[in-house]
Amino acid sequence: MKTFILTIAGGGSTYTPGIVKSLLMRKDQFKLEELRMYDIDAERQNKVAVIVKEVVKEMDPSLKLVLTTDPEEAFKDADFVFAQMRVGKYKMRELDEKIPLKYDVVGQETCGPGGMAYGLRTIFPMIELIDFVEKYAKKTCWIVNYSNPASIVAEAIRRLRPNSRIMNICDMPVGVMRNMAAILGVAREELTVDYFGLNHFGWFTKVYVNGEDKLPVLREHARVHGLLTEDMSKVDVQHSDPSWIKTYKNIKYLVDMFPEYIPNPYMQYYLLSDHIVANTNKERTRANEVMEGREKRLFDAVDQYLATGEMNKDAFYVGVHGLFIVDVAISLAFDLRKRFLVIVENKGAIKNLPDDAMVEIPAYITSNGPEPVRVGEIPTFYKGLIEQQLAAEKLLVDAALENSYEKALMAFTMNKTVKSAFQAKQILDDLIEANKEYWPELR
After folding, report:
1. Of 369, 440, 372, 437, nearest to 145 (Cα)?
2. Which of 79, 96, 171, 194 is flagged as catalytic?
3. Per-residue model confidence as pLDDT tens digits over 253-289
4. Is 200 annotated as a binding residue?
5. Statement: the pTM of the whole predicted model exceeds 0.70
6. Mind listing the domains of the chain with CATH numbers?
7. What values do phi and psi take at 3, rounded to 5?
8. Quick check: helix, strand or coil at residue 3?
9. Does residue 355 have an active-site annotation?
10. Any bridge partners for residue 31, and if so which?
11. Which residues are CB-neighbours of 117 under 8 A, at least 6 positions away?
């Protein structure tokens, strides 16, 4: 049986135990010879590894587990790299969210000014990671990348490392499919969807179950309930936090006004920005919810284990985040041609968008990479929104590569969550101050 060396870059993430468990649940199909955790923060990674070691001991005790902060040790002869870096960690995410809110602009991790701040932190560390992989790993190695904000990161990679073997993916559409499946009373794997857009900026146009389009059924449900079931904790513990309940509920407003398609939930930040700001606690954002929730649960479980030897297995959760990245890797490894929503260079797939746009659409995942499904032309309303968002993302990457304050200001002004250039400048200047340690210099 073929075996693989796999490295998780960003090993100190609280998602890592769930990803490892997802991998080991599939060991009969995707056998690991060696699993490596790589992070620049050794202390945090060592804490997360306490849980990971228990998962490995329980599920595959023969598996070699390596913890390292050394790139050569991490990537030497690797077959796969799962990238999930968070540059600046939750301390910087909190600022990404709270600085825009100070000016009554959406504060969010990947959308609006906060997402652009995160993008400027992530572009060059991601390029560095690709270079490490290309230097040390097998020439056939695939990077499967979850690092956010995915559209901005993918655009930078397209320009700076166009030949890299990288699959840019996001679990948000898969999370929506999980909710859709629960509403329809079927398994997520039974759904086949059509979708177009950019990452965190797109629409479901068809949702097939056994060849029948269930979008009309889902649309009627969404108009009343959003994409929620009666008890979301039974669907996904992780996405039953108050902020996620609100996010999935807000879809009802969008579907009621624009019933043609079902939007990615993150479209709320662009199309309902005044409503989002008015209903946000500016002192306690999603970053605080995560730090006080998922992060605290995991690290409390580590402390409990070290003190008592007892492991709280409810401290982490195997959700679509872990399941999806493993599904993609298996399709790459064995040329399965499974159909997933991924981020690819457009190249005519969406006929009336630029060829060089990094779009999120269905593709068949082969051992040579994605084979995108052609979407055709999209209607004017969606095309116009996408082009505005795409322009903001491209200008931001320009700003990073050219060290251009003016291009950054253009990007912030162009973003639909921002109301004026005055507002864009205030937010940008505050974020420059907050990100001195991380951003390229803007002149």
Report:
1. 369
2. 171
3. 999 999 999 999 999 999 999 999 999 999 999 999 9
4. yes
5. yes
6. 3-168 (3.40.50.720)
7. -125, 160
8. strand
9. no
10. 3
11. 92, 95, 96, 99, 431, 434, 435, 439
435 φ/ψ angles, rounded to the nearest 5 degrees? -110, 20
Q: For the chain, how many helices (H) and strands (E)?
A: 18, 13
Cβ-contact 23, 30 below 8 angstroms: yes
Q: Is 423 helix (H, G, I), strand (E, B) or coil?
A: helix
- 118 and 96 Cβ atoms separated by less than 8 Å: yes
Q: Token match 């086949």: residue?
A: 192
Q: Which amino acid is at 343?
A: I
Phi, psi of 385 (to 5 degrees): -65, -45
The whole-angstrom separation of Cα 292 and Cα 308 is 23
DSSP-derived secondary structure for 191-222: EEEEEEEETTEEEEEEEEETTEE-HHHHHHHH
Contact 427, 113 (CB under 8 A): yes
The residue assigned the tokens 């499904």 is 373
Name the residue type at position 126.
Answer: M
Instruction: Convert 381-418 to b/e letters by CB count within 10 Å (16 or more is b).
Output: ebeebbeebbebbbbbbbbbeeebbebbbbbbbbbbbb
- Which tokens go with 87? 């540059």
Name which of 34-38, 82-86, 307-311 the model is least confident about.
307-311
* 439: pLDDT strictly greater than 90: yes
Task: Decide: 424 and 412 in contact? Cβ < 8 Å.
Answer: yes
Q: Is 86 annotated as a binding residue?
A: no
Other Cβ atoms less than 10 A from the Cβ of 239: the count is 21
CA pair distance 11, 376, nearest whole angstrom? 39
Distance of CA 376 to the CA centre of its chain: 25
Full DSSP string of 8-67: EESTTSTTHHHHHHHHHHTTTTSEEEEEEEE-S-HHHHHHHHHHHHHHHHHH-TTSEEEE
Residue 288: closest CA among 49, 63, 101:
101
Q: Has 104 been annotated as catalytic?
A: no
Residue position matching structure tokens 């990245």: 325
Q: Give me the amino acid identity at 378.
A: I
Q: Averaged over 1-14, what is the pLDDT? A: 97
Q: What is the residue whose two structure tokens read 């992989």?
A: 133
Please give the structure tokens belonging to residue 180: 């859709």
In degrees, to the nearest 5, what angle opens at C-alpha 26 toward C-alphas 20 and 31? 85
221 annotated to a ligand binding site: no
Amino acid identity at 294:
R
